[in-house]
């Protein structure tokens, strides 16, 4: 008879969803056995009790593995240890996963349970897409049947945040609070997303056939970057970048076909100042310099060369001597630190000197510490700076690293010089081989970036893309054509990376605004960064799946709302340092949810409510007008001026629209009434108000266009 046991694994929440999770889980189990804290429990409740755990102070970081074996001997420490040793010796994570799944059935993390087979986020995505009953060739499933804002209103306000956050996070037990915590400055990035979406909804309330402009995109970026650039001296909201930049090609955001399309683009552009692809590595010049300064100050002990008693009152002459000594000693130590940095980092001395000179002029560390115990304070300060600059490089160092990476690119074209690889004369097969090589490197963990064009060139290409979009979108006949044209624009804007930051969010919201404006449903993307380096066909398929995901959210929102409510409580419980891995209803009962989300979402809720009132008011006014004509006649007037039967058909259709908001059915049913002058004017009014894309109707009824033109 099968035996089930539960074991607690410390820190499981920090690596259970890593790409190499099979290796890390096997290693963690072996470590638990080796260090004698491996303990099996017959129930999950026993494994969840932190009382006797060595890790009780960090219990929420852990998780529970649910093991299953034929008998007790299969789950003994010795047997499992041997299994893990064999598993770690396997050559691939796929093989490790298969062998681990023999005895690990479920994983309990963050208050939720996952089948071991769905631990990979890719598996969870695939399972969700399968639940959509997705049909990639059904154009009608992509089209709005309601006015855009009433379509959005079908979603409960508590789930609005799903529209503009990466769905992969929600599927991995994170909601808007986790997303907002990444950029909490100002009012928070979630507030900016709600604010920008409400503004876009305002624009949808006044449909316009005018061209999309770069100024509109800048305005959107400005709203979305309020919090990111909060409290900065230099206002970068809606401001184009002034220098080269780059962004990493993430392993989940690339495909071989997508990389090949980027390579083909680089080849056809033939621009040395254009796109490049290559490795990016931080030089860490400033961090290394700061570390060397900290160590040198401790080793050299300069305070011993000019001893000063803290009780002494220095004369002006003595104070001047001290200042001159500190200045000369600093210069000497800085020279030593610069030389040591150049040697340890294997970087030309002149390059290091230039970057450190810029850093010292801009930051002046020696002026930022107290004079009391000056040298020891300065040593500690440099140590802190070294740690900080390992994660975030100063501007001059960033630019140096970027220039170095571009000059050593794996792919570039035009008038480029070695060691950058010029692919201008590559054959299709060579491009294919290079794409496969780059893809393999990225999947193996290499930090490979797409280097963006020189700023002026990037803006020119962006304007060209806008012109192409404005020209092409007018001629789209089908939903898939709209998606292709919109995707072409946002992909171009995404890889051009026009702004200092918040490019993907800007392009993601822009894409969905353009979809709604052309009567296409909202696309809730699993990972919006796939705009970067998936092929055009793959991106269009992603958008279609994302539209199905929005439909899924609407259809299952009660279930998703409960899931989100639990995410909220668990997040707040962790802020209170609740020591648990189960998060039972009893444990969460004391948690109180704040009103932060309601405050952020209110602007969008109000905008959608406002439109519904306008829509209903307009319908009431039109219905009342025709009702008066039909029911306000006397018997005599009715005899000589009978009410056209078209009016009755129109009113019936209006009342149905008032009930179900289905503009697609409405405009299809009343299409033949366009020939009635008064009705035609009201139809135009409703078409403008609802943003209905009449092109769908013309596609379905090819003879209608002629009758309208000749009426």
Automatic annotation (TrEMBL):
Q: What residues does the Fido domain cover?
A: 426-566
User: What InterPro entries does the record tag this protein with?
Assistant: Fido (IPR003812), Fido-like_dom_sf (IPR036597)
Say which domain of life the source belongs to.
Bacteria
Would you tell me the protein name for this molecule?
Ankyrin repeat-containing protein
Organism, as annotated: Legionella feeleii
